[in-house]
């Protein structure tokens, strides 16, 4: 597997959409301009000046001048990427913070020497979003045209001794939610991306749903609910909202925030501790020179009560093929809290449901092989990754007429029952629905009465129109045990790959 690298990207020229990427480990922080950048007489032409950053003074490089752009002006709300180079800190002046992203080696394409002058400060192009987006990777070692040796050797023994005595620092990604600034430890942050369409199929509790990120399904947290105990409303996030993708306790999840302000480096001795017994979800406060405080979050404690739900949610893959990822667990243990009291609703003339914990995946029904002599509800078999799995046509099983036409799109729900794997052929999958309670099925009509052992409960399903529908739940255990002529065996259900 190709190892992904983490990059921080900035908009060098917002009007032109010119995006510059840096290796994330080189970026100490990303911050607005502090005070005024003071010119330094005699400096190189691309040196904008010097800026005070807390108790330090750092040189600030005008990257538009450095890269030869005709328009080299910056607005007052420009950002400074603080980088570490040769044991010194420099500020790179950019129009704005873009995001933090991961890219594998195949996406990073080196620029040929024939395309550049000797000043090869742009080393590679990073192709993102299937080539629709390109970031230019900056080689910090080429930042200065001359004097590199002096910079590299400028730290003498006394300076290195002083470096050892420097105050330790912690880095935080500063975000806003309901007007409050929060600091999230950089080590928890995986990437920052713009808000894309959220799949609300899995919306429940603190979860707003899920988003697809490079083929991965990332559960998305409602940050207002997590931080303030309340929702802001149904899908009312602004277009400028960002999703901060975090990693905690071996799982990834996204948190929608109003804005990502900066990457802040805070001296540990300036973090104000809370009184004993106060909120354990906060590691402390950092008071900005302006007087506004940043609340520094303890993400491990903050999400510990929700981590099981987040982990289970992160295993659910949506889209045309629904899969539960075993991720090293047994087949049944992969269906944890998120699948408890959850149902997959499907249709065969009318809506039915199946417990989500029994579902492995959903696939197209175009690979069913008909078996000579099989009739009625036995549709045939499929080859599921080297395993022969019987197919049950639920329309036939429950006595409904078959749909005509060769172009009818059906689905196969791969599920378990009585130690066996079976594929249930249905018309279509409707949704995943969470329902805490169920009811014992009353008397059934004559058509279904013979199969009453497979329909022993029902749920109340609200399809979003306000009309509540009683939906029968298929008991796959009884379906397999009582109607497929399987003996009592110990065959293990197939596990998804």
Any guess at the CATH architecture of the largest domain?
A: Beta Barrel
Number of domains: 3
What is the assigned CATH homologous superfamily of the largest domain? CheA-289, Domain 4
Secondary structure: number of strands: 35
Low-pLDDT parts are: 155-164, 315-339, 487-497
Helix content bin: 10-25%
Beta fraction of the residues? 35-45%
- Overall outline: elongated
Description:
The protein is mainly beta and 497 residues long. It folds into three domains: 5-164, CheA-289, Domain 4 (OB fold (Dihydrolipoamide Acetyltransferase, E2P)); 169-309, OB fold (Dihydrolipoamide Acetyltransferase, E2P), CATH 2.40.50; 320-483, OB fold (Dihydrolipoamide Acetyltransferase, E2P) (Beta Barrel). The longest helix has 8 residues, at 157-164. The radius of gyration is 29 Å and the shape is elongated.
């Amino acid at each position: 597997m190709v190892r992904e690298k983490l990059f921080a990207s900035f908009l060098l020229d917002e009007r032109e959409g010119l995006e510059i990427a840096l290796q994330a480990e080189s970026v100490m922080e990303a911050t607005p301009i502090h005070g005024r950048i003071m010119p330094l007489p005699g400096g190189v032409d691309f040196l904008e000046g010097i800026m005070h950053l807390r108790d330090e003074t750092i040189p600030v490089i005008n990257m538009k001048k450095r890269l030869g752009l005709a328009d080299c002006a910056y607005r007052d709300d420009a950002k400074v990427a603080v980088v570490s180079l040769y044991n010194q800190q420099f500020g790179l002046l950019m129009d704005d913070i873009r995001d933090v992203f991961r890219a594998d080696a195949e996406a990073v394409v080196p620029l040929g020497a024939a395309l550049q002058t000797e000043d090869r400060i742009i080393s590679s192009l990073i192709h993102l979003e299937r080539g629709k987006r390109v970031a230019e990777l900056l080689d910090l070692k080429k930042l200065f045209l001359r004097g590199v040796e002096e910079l590299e050797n400028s730290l003498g023994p006394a300076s290195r001794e002083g470096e050892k005595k420097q105050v330790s620092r912690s880095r935080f990604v500063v975000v806003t939610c309901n007007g409050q600034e929060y600091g999230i430890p950089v080590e928890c942050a995986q990437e920052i991306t713009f808000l894309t369409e959220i799949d609300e199929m899995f919306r429940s509790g603190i979860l707003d749903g899920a988003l697809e990120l490079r083929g991965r399904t990332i559960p998305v947290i409602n940050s207002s609910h997590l931080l303030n105990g309340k929702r802001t409303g149904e899908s009312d996030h602004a277009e400028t909202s960002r999703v901060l993708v975090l990693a905690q306790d071996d799982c990834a999840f996204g948190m929608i925030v109003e804005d990502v302000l900066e990457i802040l480096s805070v001296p540990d001795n300036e973090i104000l501790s809370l009184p004993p017994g106060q909120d354990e979800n906060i590691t402390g406060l950092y008071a900005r020179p302006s007087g506004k405080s940043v609340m520094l979050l303890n993400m491990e404690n903050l999400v510990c009560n929700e981590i099981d739900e987040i982990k289970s949610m992160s295993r659910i893959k949506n889209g045309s093929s629904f899969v539960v990822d075993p991720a090293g667990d047994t087949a049944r243990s992969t269906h944890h809290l998120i699948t408890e009291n959850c149902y997959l609703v499907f249709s065969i003339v009318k809506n039915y449901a199946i417990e989500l914990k029994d579902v492995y995946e959903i696939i197209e029904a175009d690979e069913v092989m008909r078996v000579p002599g099989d009739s009625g509800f036995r549709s045939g078999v499929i080859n599921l990754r080297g395993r022969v799995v019987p197919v049950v046509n639920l329309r036939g099983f429950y006595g409904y007429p078959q749909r005509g036409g060769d172009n009818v799109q059906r689905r196969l729900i791969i599920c378990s029952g009585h130690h066996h794997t079976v594929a249930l052929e249905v018309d279509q999958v409707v949704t995943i629905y969470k329902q805490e309670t169920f009811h014992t099925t009353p008397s059934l009509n004559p058509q279904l009465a013979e199969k009453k052992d497979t329909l022993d409960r029902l749920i109340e399903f609200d399809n979003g129109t306000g009309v509540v529908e009683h939906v029968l739940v298929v008991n796959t255990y009884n379906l397999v045990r009582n109607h497929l002529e399987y003996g009592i065996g110990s065959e293990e259900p197939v596990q998804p790959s």
